[in-house]
Q: What sequence folds into this?
């Protein structure tokens, strides 16, 4: 036995504490209780006040029988209560399930049932969707209304959020989880089956990525962070805990629009923000009436579809500095960054944009990212040409998919997490996505399952086959484009298809263009989607010209 393995060198309470992002609040509230934590319209709260409110929330939920392993769902925009849920719910070992506010009632009902939600906190602006979702459940959860005086709506719950907090103890004592592998949150992502998959995060992984954000972005203490990235996206890429760790200020907007963004930057000296290409376009295309002058540089982190060179040039010309990242829900949000090298600053704008469009290299605290041949499991040549699948390994990888052991085992084949994204790897090690093996369309930062949309379209009596692919869009990055083959003698218009989808799908999932004709297929009848992806990029896609 090694001399370092004796019982006197074992882990104990003095030298080992489970990692948890909740601990970020304890230190910040102790050291900086007077600093501004929250700005939301006219509302201001200090870190001392936020700490007390989070403890009240945890205490009140515990008194109502919610504890370790119980799921607490949230349906709300970017508001202070969403931050309090990210910090307060895990205090009692409960699991936060922040839901996409753009989902339809049926999908929300599925998520609540699949995740065994014991409570649902819902902003009253979204009470209509929530009410319809809860009505579909045999065992509905405790519903708690978040009543925002700036946006009134119908109350559907049994208790209001502020009344719930009044039941709690502001001095509530909480401890970190006994095991850092305990579940912290549950996030749902679109999958090729059409049903969202429940991605399970641990306290350990969230803590590590929260710290990783500070390293990757070189963030100093006391950042002023503007919430334009939805907090339901991978728990806001772990930034609720990152900004808390650094005793920063969370600036909230219920809905991202150009003028409020520029007002927040100018009035509150915003230093950092994240967002999909749609937010970049809002900034780049803002009119003179919407913009405000400011005298500092705003760090902007973007993911999803690579930003066009024109957008990068436009936004950087307005005082923003772009960092391009890549990731998935399964890796806690971004886990790959286009790490910028100082010598690239001298490149022409177009060349800089091409560099920034690459997905990049692993985060500092992510162990490894490679591009492997999915058939052999071996690394593809680093030639910028040979395609393979992006794989991840490290501490910021999900625990697995909830109630889906087969999907989890498939995702973790051979000791890697297989992303489903096809890419090349350049000689310098930077990866660049070339296709999405999962057929996921990313529109405005939202994941859309093409198969889910296809299944809705083929419900129509006149449709024989349907294929949905991504079409480039200056505003949203990508939008769904549907290619439809009709049954012999059938007739159907684009408006017919879009109207049918209107009753079945959330707005962002509906096709924005429908092209009719014979779909290209293999000898076995498989639709050749790679040809359709190329065609969808044309100004006026026409299946008759597919071979041109």
A:
């Amino acid at each position: 036995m090694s001399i370092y393995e004796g019982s006197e060198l074992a882990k104990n309470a003095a030298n080992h504490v489970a990692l948890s992002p909740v601990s970020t609040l304890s230190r910040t509230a102790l050291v900086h209780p007077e600093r501004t934590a929250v700005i939301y319209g006219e509302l201001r709260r200090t870190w001392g006040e936020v700490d007390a409110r989070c403890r009240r929330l945890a205490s009140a939920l515990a008194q109502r029988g919610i504890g370790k392993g119980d799921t607490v769902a949230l349906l709300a925009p970017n508001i202070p209560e969403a931050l309090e849920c990210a910090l307060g719910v895990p205090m009692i070992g409960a699991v936060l399930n922040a839901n996409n506010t753009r989902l339809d009632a049926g999908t929300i009902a599925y998520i609540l049932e699949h995740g065994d939600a014991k409570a649902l906190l819902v902003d009253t602006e979204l009470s209509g969707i929530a009410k319809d979702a809860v009505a579909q459940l045999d065992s509905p959860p405790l519903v708690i209304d978040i009543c925002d005086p700036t946006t009134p709506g119908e109350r559907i719950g049994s208790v209001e959020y502020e009344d719930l907090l009044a039941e709690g103890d502001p001095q509530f004592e909480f401890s970190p989880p006994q095991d850092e592998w305990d579940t912290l949150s549950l996030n749902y992502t679109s999958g090729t089956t059409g049903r969202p998959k429940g991605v399970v995060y641990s306290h350990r992984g969230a803590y590590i990525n929260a710290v990783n954000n500070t390293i990757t972005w070189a963030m100093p203490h006391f950042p002023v962070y503007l919430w334009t990235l939805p907090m339901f996206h991978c728990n806001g890429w772990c930034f609720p805990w990152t900004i808390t760790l650094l005793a920063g200020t969370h600036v909230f907007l219920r809905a991202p629009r150009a003028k409020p963004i520029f007002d927040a930057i100018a009035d509150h000296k915003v230093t950092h923000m994240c967002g999909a290409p749609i937010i970049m376009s809002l900034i780049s295309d803002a009119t003179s009436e919407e913009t405000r002058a400011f005298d500092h540089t705003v760090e902007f982190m973007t993911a999803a579809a690579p930003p066009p060179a024109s957008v990068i040039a436009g936004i950087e010309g307005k005082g923003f500095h772009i960092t391009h990242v890549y990731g998935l829900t399964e890796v806690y949000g971004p886990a790959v960054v286009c790490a910028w090298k100082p010598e690239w600053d001298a490149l022409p704008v177009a060349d800089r944009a091409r560099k920034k469009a690459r997905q990049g290299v692993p985060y500092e605290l992510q162990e490894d990212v490679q591009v492997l041949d999915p058939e052999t499991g071996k690394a593809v040549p680093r030639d910028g040409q040979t395609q393979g699948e992006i794989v991840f390994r490290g501490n910021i990888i999900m625990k697995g998919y909830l109630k889906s052991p087969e999907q989890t085992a498939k995702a973790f084949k051979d000791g890697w997490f297989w992303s489903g994204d096809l890419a090349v790897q350049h000689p310098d090690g930077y990866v660049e996505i070339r296709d999405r093996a999962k057929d996921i369309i990313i529109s405005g930062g939202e994941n859309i399952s093409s198969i889910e949309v296809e299944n809705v379209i083929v419900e129509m009596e006149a449709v024989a086959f349907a294929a949905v692919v991504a079409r480039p869009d200056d505003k949203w990055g990508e939008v769904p484009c549907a290619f439809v083959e009709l049954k012999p003698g059938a007739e159907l218009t684009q408006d017919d298809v879009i109207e049918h989808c209107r009753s079945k799908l959330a707005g962002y999932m509906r096709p924005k263009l429908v092209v009719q004709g014979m779909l290209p297929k293999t000898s076995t009848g498989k639709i050749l989607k790679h040809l359709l992806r190329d065609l969808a990029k044309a100004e006026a896609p026409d299946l008759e010209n597919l071979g041109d």
